[in-house]
Design the sequence.
């Protein structure tokens, strides 16, 4: 009987730990999703070794809660749909604006750093709220 009780306690502990880590992961992905929402001004863009700086709020990416986004760069506007891929920590965008997903490298309330790889060329964008 004592062995059954010990086994029960171990199983209960294991499943409790599993439940807590699942809830923690869901909370983390929810936070990332919430942090991505809103208007992000493009501060700089690096394409390979070339870096371009942007000033003001005329160049931006805006992610809406309904899964739609808008990108404005150099007065050219693109609209489309987006979603967050929790497993790879990437923004999955339709192919209208970007051929590859944007990998989130850094994200907080004020700054987002995203990158994409196309062939041998790395694209990196620094976005600020």
Sequence:
């Amino acid at each position: 009987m004592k062995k059954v009780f010990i086994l029960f306690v171990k199983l209960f502990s294991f499943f409790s730990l599993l439940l807590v880590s699942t809830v923690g992961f869901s909370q983390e992905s929810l936070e990332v999703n919430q942090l991505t929402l809103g208007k992000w001004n493009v501060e700089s863009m690096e394409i390979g070794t070339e870096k371009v700086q942007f000033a003001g709020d005329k160049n931006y990416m805006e992610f809406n809660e309904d899964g739609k986004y808008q990108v404005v760069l150099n007065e050219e506007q693109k609209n489309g749909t987006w979603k967050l891929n929790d497993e790879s920590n990437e923004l999955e965008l339709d192919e209208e604006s970007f051929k590859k997903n944007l990998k989130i490298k850094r994200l907080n309330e004020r700054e987002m750093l995203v990158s994409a790889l196309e062939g041998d060329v790395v694209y990196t964008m620094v976005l600020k709220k």
